[in-house]
Amino acid sequence: MKKLFLIIGAPGSGKTTDASIIAGKHEDIVHYSTGDMLREEVASGSELGQTIESYISKGALVPLDIIVNTIVSAINNAPVDTILIDGYPRSTEQMTAFDEIVSKEDNIELTSVIEVRVSEAVARERILGRAAEAAPGEQRSDDSEEVFNDRMKIYTDPLAEIQAFYTEKNLLKVIDGERTLDPIVADMEAFILDNK
Ligand SMILES: Nc1ncnc2c1ncn2[C@@H]1O[C@H](COP(=O)(O)OP(=O)(O)O)[C@@H](O)[C@H]1O
Questions:
Q1: Which residues are near ligand 1 (CB < 6 Å)?
Q2: Which residues make up the binding site for ATP (predicted)?
């Protein structure tokens, strides 16, 4: 049985960093970041990667079929049974599409949806700080003020509906992301270890 933890959070919430640290500490936990998987496809130079980059550079969501295929293949190819995926779902369309997949796949259990919660002000400060600190040529194409605003709106627009959907299923776990890294990671790690 593959036990899946979805981790959502605003741009700059630290969701990818948190999940990556936890997976790095436990051999029986693997972590996939939707953003990183999509950027890997872009880096491959494939035609699909060019399509993906056209969305990422605008802070827009890539099409449903692309992101669903990306996460389903990551789950199916995962080498261990506890899987953390950060950056999904980002729309109610993605949420319902995945709910259908999980309901059909006996081998996949959605164990929890962890929301790393930060205010827009903290998210903005972190993203624009990351952009300012990036080495020349290393800045992410979507870390500009304008694209950040679009990414933030895309995240917050469906959030209430996503929170309600998973609260109803008793699957939502909120973690305060406005702290230093260690207590956030400790809280998330304890929750995952208690529930995997
Ligand atoms: N679940 C998803 N659905 C569609 N597009 C996605 C998804 N996850 C990531 N992306 C694309 O990758 C970009 C970067 O995502 P990510 O690295 O997680 O950054 P952040 O969440 O901090 O904005 C998103 O702005 C979007 O273009």
A1: 11, 34-35, 38, 55-56, 59-62, 67, 87-88, 90, 94, 142, 151
A2: 12-17, 130, 179
